[in-house]
Amino acid sequence: MAKLIERIFKFLIVSVCFIFIYKYIKDNDNIVNIITNVDYTKFLFIILLVSIIIFLYSNLLLVTLTDLCKIKIPKLKWYLIYFNSQFLNSIPLFGIFYRAAQLKKFDLNYDKFVGIYILISWFFLFLSLFLFSIETFFILKNFKLFNLKLSLLLLLLSLFFLIIPLVFLKFTKVIIGKLNIKGNYFVNKLDKLINLFLISLSNKVFLKKFFLIFLLLHFIEFLVLTLLIDSLQGNVGFENSFILFMGNTLIDMFNLLPQNLIISEIGLGLLTDQMNFNFELGVLIKIYFRFIVFFASVFIAILYNVVLIFLNKILKNNV
Question: Considering the entire predicted model, what is its pTM?
Answer without folding.
Answer: 0.84
